[in-house]
Structure formats: C-alpha cells, structure tokens
Sequence to fold (173 residues):
Amino acid sequence: MGDLDRVYAKRQRPEYPQVRESALTAEEAGLVEIPLLGWVAAGQPIDLNEYRRRVRVPPNWVRSNTYALEVRGHSMIDDDIQDGDIIVIEKCEWANNGESVVAMINGETVTLKRFYVEKAGIRLQPANQTMAPIYLRNEEVRILGIVTGVLRKREETLAVRYQGAGARASGGI
Fold:
C-alpha cells in the first residue's frame, strides 16, 4: 500500500457512525506492518491464493498471530466489508457465534463468513441478504482466524475500521 499522507479511523459502533479524519501520517500514528498472505472469497468459497506483501495497521490490532487477507466478493457487504478491502485476522481455531471468520471448508476452499454453531453442525452466514448460508458438519470446517479489523484504500488515504471480536478485542484507534 505504501506510505499514506493521512490516516482515517472508524469504529464499528453506533457512537462512531462516520469516518473521522486524523492529522497524523502513517508513521506518526505508529502503524506497524503485518503480512498480507493472499486473498479470501466473500462470496463463493475459493482456493487460498497465497502471495506475500505487507500492510500497516494500528499496533493494538497486532498480536503474535496476526495477518491480513484481501477480500474478493460481496457476501459481507452488510457488515461493511467490501470487495478489495484488506481484513486483519487473528489466527485462531475457534470463534464465538456471530464472529466473522476465515474458514476452510473440507481442507480445500477458504471463505469469509459469520460463524454459528447449530444443533446439526456449522452455519457459515453471509452478511448479504441476497446470499444463502452454507451448512456444514463440524468436521468439514476449520477456522483459520477471526476478523479483527478492516482496511480500505480510498484515493490517497486509508480507512481503518475496527471490527471488534468480543472479549478478544483490545479496542480501535
């Protein structure tokens, strides 16, 4: 993404409904780099396409197992995760109901969806009313991580939106 002139911050909470401008440069904001490992489908599941770049994120988003993926598709638009956004992922193998996760299906394809445990198994729910959920048995799903933040390039700036992950979240910027 390169160095950016200004950093924008947005929290996904009702008391912060709009993006606020900060006068800080990326360096002054203390952003740190994490690996961008590839892209993930926000739509139909796809094979994980690995490539290595780095992106800058607020330091309070980074834990020992943090990485980023580029989003391709529109299944998470109701959560304001758009095609082309960069999602920040905390690598873990479990999630709470309702959390946005990167999940591997049958050891082959990877997708971005909301995660729910149900009596019959797992439901991977798109955040797009026009798309159907994916129902799977427990053994067919492996969680690769939960979404903790969303980055969006806007012209010469970067929008940073905290995606919160329940008790795991350490806050936005």
